[in-house]
Amino acid sequence: MEKKPNFGGPRRPMGPKPRPGQRPVRGGDRRNDPYAINEYIRAREVRLVGDNVEQGIYPLAQALKIAEKLELDLVEISPNAEPPVCRIIDYQKFLYQQKKRQKEQKQKAAKVVVKEIRFGPQTDDHDYNFKLKHAQGFLKEGSKVKAYVFFRGRSILFKEQGEVLLLRFANDLEDLGKVEMMPVLEGKRMSIMLAPLKPAAKKEDKSKEKPAKAPKPAAEEPQAEETAE
Q1: CA–CA gap between residue 124 and residue 224 (Å, rounded)
Q2: For residue 95, what are the contacts with CB-CB under 8 A and spacing of at least 6?
C-alpha cells in the first residue's frame, strides 16, 4: 500500500484568539499572572488611571486600542472596583519593579535570631558569669536571648530558686536587654526571654558626639586681647 503524504504545514498557535481590536499578549500565555492584562480582562468597560492617558471610563475595546497605540499593556490593577480600574503600562517593567521592591523589603526586614542559654537550678557563680558574658555578646549583636533552667527529677522542688536565678540574670543584663517574657514554667523548664535594648546604643552615640562641640573658648579670645592692651 502506498503511504499517504504527510503535509506538515504550519500549526496554528494554541491559546485564546485575540478579539478584533486587541493585540496578543507579550510573552505568551499569562493566565497564571497575578493581574489580568489585555485580552484576559473580561469587563465590558474599565476606568483608566495614570499619567499617560486621559482618565475616565472607557469601553474595553477602546482602552485596548489606546494601549496598542502607546505600545504598552492594559493592566487590571483593581478588579473588584465598579468598573475595574486599569493602567496602561509596560507590564514586564511593572513586574520587575514589584519583585525588586519585595526583595528590598525582605532584605530590610530584620531576621529574629534567638540564642538559648541553659542553667541548672543550682548553677555556681563561675558558670553563671561565663554564661552571662555569652548573653551580653548575643544582645550586643542584636539577637534575642532565651535563658532557661532545666529541672531533672526531684530538682523541680527548687523551682523558686530557678526563678530567682532567672530574675538575677535579667537584672544583670538590664543595660543591654529588656524582659519580653517573665519566668514561666513549662513542664520541666522555666524560661525567660530578653530582647536587645536598641535605644541604649543611640545614647552611646550621642555621648560620643558631645566632645566634638567643645570649640567654645574661641569666643573668649577677644577678651584676652583687650586685657593684653
Answers
A1: 63
A2: none
- Listing DSSP states for 135-186 in one string gives HHHHHHTT-EEEEEEE--GGGGGGHHHHHHHHHHHHHHTTTTEEEEEEEEEE
CA distance 213 to 190: 49
What is 36-104's CATH number, 1.10.3720.10, 3.30.70.120, 3.90.550.10, 3.10.20.80? 3.10.20.80
- Is the pTM higher than 0.85? no
Please give the Cα distance from 32 to 147 (Å, whole number): 47
- In tens digits, the chain (229 residues) has pLDDT values of 555 555 444 444 444 444 444 444 444 555 567 788 888 888 889 999 887 788 889 999 999 998 898 888 988 988 888 899 998 988 899 889 988 988 888 776 667 788 999 998 888 899 999 999 999 999 998 889 999 998 887 766 767 888 899 999 999 999 999 998 888 888 888 999 999 986 544 444 444 545 555 555 544 444 444 433 3
Fold match, 36-104 / 114-202: no
114-202: CATH topology:
Translation Initiation Factor IF3 (3.30.110)
